[in-house]
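Here is my example:
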Amino acid sequence: MAEPITIARPYAEAVFRLADGAGKLAEWSAMLSTLAQVSADERVRAAMADPSLPAVKVAGLFISILAGRLTGECENLVRVLAENHRLGLLAEVHDQFEVLKNDREGVVEAAIQTAFELDPAQLSDLTARLEKHTGRKVRVHVNLDKALIGGVRILIGDQVIDASARAQLAALESALKD
């Protein structure tokens, strides 16, 4: 069976082409985010999994929950996903759309894990260094992780920059064992 990300990719690419051509990347990003949030709701997931509910009713449920917040094109996407039993992939469609959108806008996402709260000056300096390192605009997401002991661990795509005290201690331990 194919991975969800593989199944979601063509939908994300089609939506991206539509949004990019219309100059509405931000609008589609917001709509897909909202759809992904709705699809994560337990009651909605139960309705999607109910074999007695026809696809048109499940699509209608999504559209009615988000009445007035979706464009006609987005409502059509919901109908297509419902007909193909793919509404459960909305989070993956949104994630892949965001990757395409960020690539178009020259933005890279960076997840920063830190043992302690960063003050605005530290975060600004770190962001500037990452932008210089990547050559792209960096959008950061900061999470506290006390297990790091000190320092930071940065994930940019599949690249990891581990400047945490925990990693340095592990490297020291490894060096002492050799």
The chain has a mean pLDDT of 92. The chain is about 60% helix and 15% strand.
